[in-house]
Amino acid sequence: MAEAASTALIAELESAVKGGSSERRLQMLRQVTDLFLSDADRLNENQIGVFDDVLVRLMEQMEARALAQLSTNLSGSSLAPKETVRQLAYHQDASVAVPVLARSARLSEGDLIEIASLRGPQHLLAISHRETLSEGVTDALLKRGDTRVSHTLARNTGARFSERGYAVLVESSEKDDALAEKLGLRLDVPIKVLRELLSRASAAVRERLLKVAPPEMRARIQAAIQSVVEQIASPSLAPVNYAESESMVLALNRAGKLGDQTINRFAIQSEYTHIIAALSLLNSVRIEAIEPLLANPRPDGLIVACKAARLNWSTTHMILRNRPHCRPLTAQEFENGREVFDALSLSSAQRTIRFWSARGSARKADAPDTAVAISDI
Predict the structure, then answer these.
(1) Which residues 6+ apart lie within 8 Å of 280 measured at CB?
(2) Is the distance from CB of 228 to CB of 191 less than 8 angstroms?
(3) Domain ranges of the chain
(4) Radius of gyration of the CA atoms of the chain, in A
(5) pTM above 0.85, yes or no
(6) Which InterPro entries match (predicted)?
């Protein structure tokens, strides 16, 4: 380092800070920054600390534009003065904070978590672009971040996620196909998370993932999809004997009483063997074609079956609301279901049910086929 030059600059600091003009202070800031960057790789921590003290004092009365330039200049230095970088990163003006938030290696995990909990969306987005991110930081970002933050994190290969973080992303991806695709293409996504993601994803998302995934991911995604299909298709409980229910609904139908009012009552009373038998009879398909639809986490297939059976939305809603062994649907999911129900014609619904029945067994009545059939209508 040019000792004489640095000593002269530091000697001028007091006069520049105390009585110098804004132009003089800005000139000093640039000179000190340039001197530091030119000699940074030859400085020890004590010497860097001297520069830190000088820069912090000069920053006190600087405008945001000058600080933004300082932030840009220091963001790529692995030896940048720590306190200077921290003050820049915590700055409320995003133009000042963003460069160091996105790149500087001098910020600690604690700094990043605190900034993510205090500052605005541009600060959070900048952090989400960092080359590496710990689970603690991504948790903080996902707690307050917007859609842009979620998408950036999902495609950031250096970001690590906790179970909670993955759960947040998977839940958000259910209504965001682009996010689902980004998350599904991560090489480090745990298989359990991938299965959950694919169980909620539409058939279109699954198809696109298989199409664009690199070879090392394609086999993994295909295996996860098959696992989801088998889980949905395989009965988790002992086989059910539908003989009594089939006899009862057949008698009700012959008497002209197998309609919305009766099936609505079945749903309220959780008599789902009766509902399955009724939908089987009204759709003229086997029990095995209807039974998997009740356990499918996605409600679309059951909506098609109800529409094809000429039930109204009120009855369909009640069936969906009281399904055993299924998580409760959200208000938004019910709204989406109503839109599917209203848009679906009777002929299309009946054609879809016949298609599923033709597959030949309950094991083949899987979620991907359900979604594809609906999307093709």
Answers:
(1) 242, 246, 286, 287, 289, 290
(2) no
(3) 1-107, 243-376
(4) 31
(5) no
(6) DUF2336
